[in-house]
Fold this sequence. Notes:
Number of helices of chain B: 14
Number of helices of chain A: 6
Number of strands of chain A: 7
Oligomer: heterodimer
Radius of gyration of chain A: 33 Å
Structural class of chain A: alpha+beta
Helix content of chain B: 55-70%
Strand content of chain A: 15-25%
Shape of chain A: rod-shaped
Structural class of chain B: alpha+beta
Order of helices and strands of chain B: HEHHEEHHHEEHHEEHHEEHHEHH
Strand content of chain B: 5-15%
Order of helices and strands of chain A: EEEEEEEHHHHHH
Helix content of chain A: 40-55%
Distance between the termini of chain B: 49 Å
Radius of gyration of chain B: 25 Å
Distance between the termini of chain A: 89 Å
Largest sheet of chain A: 7 strands, antiparallel
Shape of chain B: globular
Amino acid sequence: MASGPATYLDGVTGTPKAVQVTLKDNAIDIASADGSPLARWDVAATELLPAAEDRLRLSLTDGPTARLDVRDPDFAHALREKLGFSIPHHTALEKKHRRLVIAWTAAAAAAVLVIGITGLPALAGLLAPVIPYSWELRIGAQATSCNSSARRPRTSRRCAATAAMPNAPASRSSSP
Amino acid sequence: MTAVDMAPVAPPADMNEGRGRFLGSKRDYWRVLARDTLALIVTIGLYRFWVSTNIRRYLWSRTEIAGEQLDYTGDPIELLIGFLVLVVVLAPAVLVFSLLSWGSDFFSAFFIAPYLPIVLLFPLAFLALYQARRYRLNHTVFRGLRFRQTGSAIVYVLRGAAWSLLVLLTLGLAYPWARVSLERYKMRHTWFGEVQGSFVGSAWQLFKRGLLWWAIVWVPVILLSSLAGEDEESAGVAAVLAFMWLGLSSIIVYPFLHALVIRWRIAGIRFGTLSFEANFSLGRFAKSYFKFFGWLLLLAIVVGILAVIVMLWIVPAIPLGRSMTAEVIGIISLIIVYFIIATLMAFAYQATVRFETWRLIVETLVIRGVGQLDSAKAPAEPAARRRGRVAAAINLGGL
């Protein structure tokens, strides 16, 4: 059984209360300075929050925003040991997440490559019959103007804008 | 009744006054940053939601205001989902605009059509800033009570866009009035528990303090343009000089101006009878920016030297020739290099400006009317924790 001083914030008012914390039977008993009980937290339902070194900050995993703040370094250390919280809850989760994100990124990169190499040509074959002839001509004209202007660096920047203009030379040929 | 009787019974100044304290260290903060850098590069930036969450958790949990620390309860998965939602919304919009400008004479008649997605990004930035602030506040717990932001992001966008136009037309002189209008809107919709915030900063005060800095940037530019002669050559020289001065002086003036605005904004915040003050020196604030600029310069030099070495000696030595494989490898290498550079730039910003200005503000913070914090209560209905996901993902803005 470990017991020591802490600050309790009940999540209902903004007043910090000086309390006495006792750990027994897998629960944290929070009592006011005069000994009257304020709350009882089940250890399984508490989590460690990030805090400055030598401090211990606890909250309930699912519930209001109540906080328990232990600032006595010795008691914080003892409580941490007894609760079995070596690292904050989110740090353990984070390692798992990091691996997952890396794996998903690799999968996404592979998917982009596959779509680029095989998917797009297949899609183009499917879409070609449904695209209006005038659209095809415009896209073709834009591609041609981009290609030719790419060889002339001075005009290449205006390529996209020129192709989109109705009176630009590239678009004039669009009416069939 | 005597005069003494009528005087309000104020608690002793020291009882009702609190200070800010920063409990972290630069070394620990760098460790948080460095640990995630590799993951950020490998995941082509996708890991940024975890990085920004880690940074916030660290800064919040090491910040003590009037004796109590802050808690950040945000979730990187929510930020990621918000980002994906944004992609799902934006991608079809861009696609539709491209298709319309290809396919229809009517639509492409507006020369703006191809740039419309970019024009739309401007109000989107205001929307993102407001929503990101909503997310940060709704996930900030202090003294066991949640902050929250209400109000409409759309109204904020309209206000922001209108004021920005006016600021642009007045070369920045209208900025203090724009700032007051936007701060009032934001603070009026900010709550600590059930205590409503407000903003009392004066635009004139900011105008008077900022005028000198404004003059340093703009007076030489205005003089140069008025002194330019009739002939094209001297006008050209004057324009080049004016632009050079505008760029150079902005880099030097911006950090000081930012410090000035932050100090003024902090002093204007109210929550009931609670007020703040952070009288840090402008020079110390600006120093963190100059460190950041130094890092960027160093990075540019190193990247420049490496690029020359790669182009002159390494690329010609690779026996691939001009093949498809060579092109694909080239593109992939460029993407990786881009992410490495972007990550290092972000790292430099977080390590200098973000960390040092945060620490400076917290360490110089004075809080008056702490009694207001004790009497604050949680609102009857629980705060909407999940609001503001979408734009929070863009992660714009600092504090």
